[in-house]
Write a structure and sequence with these properties.
CATH class of the largest domain: Mainly Alpha
CATH topology of the largest domain: Tetracycline Repressor, domain 2
Distance between the termini: 53 Å
Structural class: mainly alpha
CATH architecture of the largest domain: Orthogonal Bundle
Number of strands: 0
Number of helices: 9
Radius of gyration: 20 Å
Shape: elongated
Order of helices and strands: HHHHHHHHH
Number of domains: 2
Length: about 200
Amino acid sequence: MRQVKKPEIRKAEIVDAAVRSFVERGYDQTSVESITGGLGVAKGCFYHYFSSKEQVFAAAIEAIARQLCASYLAVLQDDSRSPRARLRGYIDHSYALTEAPGLLAALHGDRFRDMHHRIVDRVADELRPALCAVVAEGAAEGEFRIPDPEFTAIALPGALRELHEVYAERPDLDLAAHRATLVDLLERLLGAELTDSDHPEDR
């Protein structure tokens, strides 16, 4: 007997299949047939939820951005850790994602430049308030020695975004050196040492 799935479940399955096809084939080589073929459903099922490949591409971007935002916010909004520890945890998480295999690694390739830029913009917009809150809290508690917390809170997300955009496209990037340089920059910007997350004061 044919299984009838709830619309939201079937739509999510189509988005997941589209993401896999975009990663494996690239955007141009992905077709509605390659998406539905991976699910074993008819093209009509796809068009019941999406009018085009472009529309499911946008849905895929939204799904990836939501996943990334949730993982970052879990770090930035962890009130059991100090603002300094949360900011260092944010950096740790960013580099861990960069080194992870699969979709996120594929997004840094040339064929996904547009998708990558759109996801970065979406995630940056979503995380800006949380990053600003961490900076403001750290300044209020005396962890960050900065003359203008609001100015720094606004400048920091923009700087992190631009650094990511420029360096993400360099496949031969020395991540360890890049990370050390970023930590040094943030320490000078915040007037504080960003100690390792495994130190007692950062737990």
